[in-house]
Predict the 3D structure of the following.
Amino acid sequence: MPLKYAINPDICLKLTKDKCGTCEEVCPANAIDYTQTEEHITINAGSIIYSPGFTPFDPSKFDNYQYANFPNVITSMEFERILSATGPTMGHVTTFPKLPLNPKKKKDKLLAQKRKDPKKIAWFQCVGSRDINKCDNPYCSSVCCMYAVKEAIIAKEHAGGDLDCSIFYMDMRTPGKEFEKYYENAKDKHGINFIRTKVHSVTENPETHDLNIRYVDDFGQIVDDTYDMIVLSVGLEISEETKALSEKLGIDLTSNGFCKTNSFEPVTSSRDGIYISGVFNNPKDIPDSVLDASAAASAAGDALSSARDTLTKSVEKIEEINVVGERPRIGAFICDCGSNIKGVVDCEAVTEYAKTLPYVEFADESMYACSQDAQSKMVDFIKEKNLNRIVIAACTPKTHEPLFQETLANSGLNKYLFEMTNIRNHNSWVHKNNPDIATQKAKDLVRMAVAKAALAEPLKEEKINVNDSVVVVGGGLAGMTSAKSLATQGYSTHIIEKNNQLGGEAHKLYKTAQGEDVQTQLNELIKEVENNDNITVHCNTTLESADGFVGNFKSTLKSDDKEFELEYGIAVLATGAKAFVPDEYEYGNDERIITSLDLDKMFKVNDTKLDTINSAVFIQCVGSRQPDRPYCSRVCCTHSIDNAIELKKRNPKMNVFIIYRDIRTYGESELLYKEARNLGVIFIRYEVDKKPEVTIKGKNLFIKVTDHVLNMPVEIKTDMLTLATAIVPRKDEKLANFFKVPLNDEGFFIEKHAKLGPAEFATSGVFLAGSGHYPKPVNEAITQGRASASRALTLLAKKDSLFTSGIIANVDPLKCSECGVCVSICPYSAPMFATEGRFEGKAEVNPVLCKGCGLCVASCRSGALHLRGFDTNQIFSQIFALGEVV
Amino acid sequence: MKFITIDKKDWAKGIEKSRKTYQLFGPVKDKNGFFIKSLGKDMLPDMDYHDSVMSVKSVLFPQTENILTTTLDEAQEDHHIMKRAVTDYSPRAVLGIRPYDAKAIELVKLNFDTDDYKDPYWCDAYEATTFVGLGLNKPGPFDFSSSTGSGPFNEEGLDVLLADLDDKYLAKVLTDKGEAFIKACGFDLIADDKESQALFDILRKEAEKNIVSKISTDKLKEKTILEIHEAPFWDDIAFSCINCGTCTFVCPTCWCFDIQDETKRKASTRIRNWDTCMSPLFTKHATGHNPRDTKTQRVRQRFMHKLKYFFDKYDQGIMCVGCGRCVKSCPVNIDIREVCNMMNSYEKQE
Amino acid sequence: MNKQLIGSVVVIGGGISGMLSALDLANSGYYVYLVEKGPSIGGVMAQLDKTFPTNDCAM
Amino acid sequence: MDTYINKIRELSLKLLKKKEVVKVIGFTKGTLPMATSPIAISLEQDVEKLIFNSTCGLNLANYIRNHKGKIAVIAKGCDSRNIITHIVENQIPREQLHIIGVPCKGMIDKTKVASLFDDDIIEFSEDNDTLLLKSSSKEERLNKQDYLRENCKLCMHKNPVIYDDLVGDLVDEQTLDTPYPDVEQIENMDADTKWQHFDKLTKNCIRCYACRNACPICYCPTCFVDESGPQWVGKGQDKTDVNTFHFLRAFHCAGRCTDCGACVEACPMDINVRDFTRKLNKDSFELFEWEAGLDLTKRPPLDAYSPNDPNDFIK
C-alpha cells in the first residue's frame, strides 16, 4: 500500500516498447514523467542515521499452516489491510479476502463468489518468531501479541459481537505501557479466547474451504476445531537487502541481522558516525521506534554540535497587511482532492455556488489545493483580487491547516484570516453513494465556513522568551543521558538529584541483558556528567516548587535546608521508579528469601554465600499483573533469566527453577531464555489465582507449586528464593502538579501521546525519560533519555521564533463577575485575577499559558470569556448559515 | 347621558350577541389571580373579581407587539422593505375593567396620542376599543385611587360604566362607542336618569368610605426637580430594591417600550416590548456608558417620572391611579404611597 | 583531527523512525537528507489500521 | 420570634456601637401585613427597625456585595450557605463579614395563605407555631407547619452553616429519605406530560426577572438575557424565548443553588421557578455528592474538572 504510485520500469510498455502512455494522458496532475532515469547523487553529510526497518516474515515456506495454498490463511499484515477502511474490502471482514487474485482465472472467480462473513477466526502467534525449526528466527518479534489482540478486537467491532476470535499463543507478551490492561479487556470485555498452545497442523475442507486445526490443549487433550479464517501473526525480519547494505556500511550485526549496539549507547552502531533506529535496532513497537528516532537524532546531533545551524536556511518573513476595518473580501478555494472529492461532489457547482455567497469576491476550484503550484496560484489570487479572508473546502485541517496558513502568511495575510472546511472526510468519503446529497452538503459547509470567515479577525501570537537552560529532575541513567546530550549541544543544564550521588537505581544492578557490567559503565557516565562544564549537578536537592511555563520556569530548590531559586526554560522529568517491597511469599521472614536486586548485589560483591547454594528458585510477577497493580513490570523476566544463567554458570549442578506466568523476554532477549533452558533451568508456570506457596519448615525452605505439564503439585526444597518484584512508580503527585502533567492510575507519568509523543508531556516545555514513564531496562532508559533531549532541543532551537497560538481565550473585563470559575477550571493556570490597574480583581488570561481549549469560555456564566478565532458571533453566524437553505 | 338596566339573567345572552360585532376581553381567573384576557368562544367575563393581577393596558399595548415586518429573501421584489405588520383592529370591547385602569388609559393616551405624534399602533387599537367599566363597590385596603384623581366610580376613559346591583347591572352609557356596544348587546331597558345617577352617587360615596389609604400630592408641584432629586432618602428607598421590573410591568400607566429586530430564517420582524426603567439596559448607551448606572438612580427615576416630571409636564396630576398593584407585587415591598408622601413632605434642610 | 564538521545528516529509511529522526534534526539546526527507496514515505505504520493500545488510527 | 428580634437588635447595637461594623443588613417591617423588606442599618438608634419573622423569605446574601467596610448580616440557614458561595466565588472576603446566624424555623408560603381569602389580608401576626390572619371579611388561625414554603418543608440546613453570633439555640435538622420528591414526580412524567408541565409553569411569565434579581447567585454584571452581541435570547414574549431564559438561568445555578426559595418568593406571577433549579440540585447531589454552600474550601462541581467526574451520560 504505497501512498503514491510508481512505474515499474521493467513492465511499463511506454518505457520498454514506447507504446501505451495512457497514464500520462489520464493523470490530472501531470505527475507522469517518462524521462526520469536513475541518478547518482553524492551527498556530503556529517552523520548517517540508518533506519531501514523490517520486512514482515513470509510464511509461504511454512508447510504446516499452508499459507501458500489455502485462501483463508492470511498474514496479519493482510488482515490489517482488511480492517482498514481504505483497504481492499473497505474494512469489511470477509473470507477469501485476497481473491480473485487473477480475475481471469475461473477458479479464483468461483472461490471469490463463496465469500462469506466469517464466524470464527484464529490467530496463530509466533509465526516466524521464536522458532528455529521452521525458520531461523530465534528472537521474539515483540509486537505480534499486541497486534493480534488489537486485530481480534477490531475484527469483532467490524463484524459484530458474535464473531468468535481465538488467539493461539505460547506466552502472551504484553509488557508495554497500558498493554496488560488492553489484554485483560480483550479477555474480559471483548470475549477474545486465548488458547495457550502451538497448533500442530491445518487442513482444509476442499468444499467449503473451512480450516480444520488440531492442537493439544492445556490439559493434554487433543482438540480438533474448525475456523473460517486463520491469521498468521508473522514476525519481523531484517531483509537481505538491509543486511547487505549494513555490510557495505561496515556495521556489525547480531546473528539475527539486527544491529549490534551497546546498552549504554543503544542507537550507535559499531561504525563511527552511523546511528541506527527502529526495528533494525531490535524488534520493537511504534513508541519504542519513535524513541529510537529521537535518540538517534540526539546522538547524531551530539557528534555534530559544533556545526549546528551552519547549513540550515531560515524562511523570509513577509510583512503583514493590515485588514482591520476592511470589508471582508473572501476568496473561496474548492479542492477536488483528485477524485477523492470530485468523484462524489460536483465541485464545479460548489465553486459556482460559493461565488454567490455574501462577501465572496472570488472562488476557484483546484485539483489539489495543497500542491505547490495551487499554493503559488493562491498567493497570486490573494494579491491580485486583494482578498482579505480565505476559505478552503478540502480535507482535514488537522493535517493541512498549517500548510494553507503558511500560504496566507506568504501573501501577507494574518494566518487566522482563514477558515477550512472538510468536504472530504466529513462528506465525500461518507456520502459516497449519495453524490447529490454530498454536493448539497458541500455547499452547506462552504456557506457556513464563509459565514464564519467573514467575521475572522487577525490574531496576534505572543512571542515567548525562552530561557535556554534546562533542569533535569532525577540523576539516574535517563536523566544523566538527557543532560549529557543537552549539555553537549551547548545548553546549560542542571541535574536535581535527591540522593547524595548520581546514578539512581542503576547502582543496584549487576549486568545488562547483553552482558555488560553496569557499574563500570555507570561510573564512567557519572564522571562524564560531573566533568561536563555545561552541567551543574545538585545532589541532596529537592524541587520545592515550579511556576511558569515553557521557556520561563522558576523553581525553589532545597538543599540541606538551604533554599535557592533557579530559572530555566525546559524541564525533563526523569524521576525513575523503585522496586516494590513484597508483602507475600514469606519475604522478610527468612534471609534466604531475597529480591532480584538483592541477588544482583550478591553477584556484585561476589558474596561467598553463593558458593553454598545448590538450589535456587525464582518467582516471577511478584506484585505485577495482579488486580492491585495490573501492569507488567517489563524487565523482570529477562532479569531473572539472566541471573539464573549466572547461577548456572557459576555452578552448573545447581537446580534452578523459574516459576512464571508468561515469559516475556521480548526481542533478542528471547535468546537468553533459550540459553537458560539449554543450561537446564526449569520453568514452571503458575496462574495468578494459584500462586506458589512458600513455607519455612525448620531449616528448610519449601516452595509448593502446581506443575503445568504434570498438572500436579510439586514441592521444591531450595536454598534461595528470589522474588522478581514489581517496579513501582514514585507517584510524585507534587511534581506532577508543579508542571501540570498527569499521572495514570498506577502513578506513571502520562506522556503527550502513547505512540508519537513518548518522551514529552502535553505541557509544553516539559519532557519525560526513564522509568517514571514505565519500567524499562538500561538501554531503553538511556534511549528515552536521549530522546527527551532531542525533543527538548527542537524547542530550544526555536528559541527566537517561539510564539503562542493566536487562538487563545481573552477576557472582557466589563462583563467579568470575578467569580473565579475560569481560574479554578483551567488545567494550565492561564486565567488569573488582575492584581493592579483599572480592572483589578477581574480575570485576565496569560496568553503564553493558554492552550485555547475553551474550557474557561464554556464555563464562564457571565459571558466575559471569549475564544479568539472561535468567538460566539462566529459560531452563531455559522449556525445561522446552516439554517439557511441553498 | 343614558342609563340602562341589565338583568343579570340577560347578561350572558347580550354578551353573546355582541360577539357578532366585537371581540371581547374581560377578567378571567388563572392560577391565583385574575387577568384581563381575550374571551374565547363560550367564555364569559368573571365579573365577581376584585382586581386583576395585570392591568388592562396590554389590550392596547401588548407586552410584545409586531410593528413592522419584511423579508430578507432577495427573490422577493419587496425584500428589505419594512412594512407595517398586519394587526387586527376590528372592534373590540373590554368588559368589567376597574375605573382606575380606565383613568390610566387616559394618562397613557397623553403619551401615545399627541398633537405632535400619534402612535399608530396604540391609536388604532384605542380607536377600535370600547371600554366597559365596572364600579368598585368595595375597594380593598390598599386602594388609594381617590387621592390620585380616580376613584371607584370614576368615569374617565370609560365608554360604559356598570354598577353592580346584586341581581342586575345598572349601565351608565358615557359615549357613542358605549352606546353602540349596548345596542349590539341588545340591552334596551332604559332606566330613569335622575334616579340612576342618584344611585351611582350613593354607591360611589359608600365605596369611597372603604378607601382608607391615601397619598398627599399637594406640595409636589411647588418643589423644584433638583430639590427632590437631591433629597437624602433615595439611597434608603433603593436599598432593598432588586431592580426587577415587576412594578413597571403591573403598572397601568407605565408606557415605556424597547424596539428589537428579530430575524427568523428570511422573515424579519420589528417588535416592541415593554421596557422597564428598573433595568440597567434601559439607558445604556451603545458606547457602554450608562447615565443611570446605579440602582438608586434607577429607583429615583421611576418615582420622579411618575410623581414629578409627569406632573410638571402635563398638569394632569401624577402618573399613578392608585390601584396599589405595585405595592402588592413588589418582592421587597417598596411602597409608592410612602415614597410619594416622603417627596411631598420633603423640606430641604438648610 | 579538527576536520571541519558538516552540519548535515543523511537519514536512510522513511518509516516512522526515520521520519521522526529527520524532523528532530531539521528542527534543531541540522540539514537533513531523507532517503527512501520506495515511492513514498510512511513505512509499515502507514499500512496499519489502528494502533495498540489506544486504537488510534495509524494514519 | 420576639427573642430572636431582641437578640438581633442587641447584637446589632453592640456591633455598631463598638464600630466593628459600618452597617447591619437585616429585615424591617413592611407596609403590608405579610411583607418585610431588607434594610441596612448604620445608625444605633435605627436598630429598633430590625425585625425577624416567618415572612423574611428573601435571601440577604443578595445584599452583601459591593459595600465599603465591614458589614454584619442576618443569616438563616440558606442565607449562610449563599454567603459561603459568595466567599468561595470571590464576591466578598470572609473578613469583611460579621454573620449573625438565625436558626431558622421555616418561612411561610404567602401565596398559599393569601389564597384562603377572597379579599386582601389586613392583619398578620404569629405566636410560635400559630399564624393569625385577618381580612375585612374573616379571621383565620393557622398552624404554621401547614403553610411552610415548599423549600422550607424539604430544608435540611435550617441552621446557619457559618456564623459569628447566634440569636438562639440551634434547631433540630430533619433528615429526609427522599429529599427530592418534587423532582422525582416530574422525572417520572412521560415526555409529553413533562413538556406540558413546564409549558404551563412559565405560561404567565412577564419576564420581569424578579426571580433572577432576587437570586444571590445571579450577580453577573451583564446577564445573558441582556446581552446583545450575540443576542442569546429573544426579548419578546415568544414562548421559546421565555423558556430559554428559565432553562439557561437554571443551568447557571447548577451546583450553586441552595434552594433558598427567594426566586419563588419574588415572582409576581407565582411561578414555581424551583422546578428548574431543583432538578440540577438533585443531579449535583447524586452525581457529585454535592450540596451548595456547605464548604468554604470547595468550589462547586461544575467549576472544577476531575478525571473521576461521573461520565455515565457518555453513551
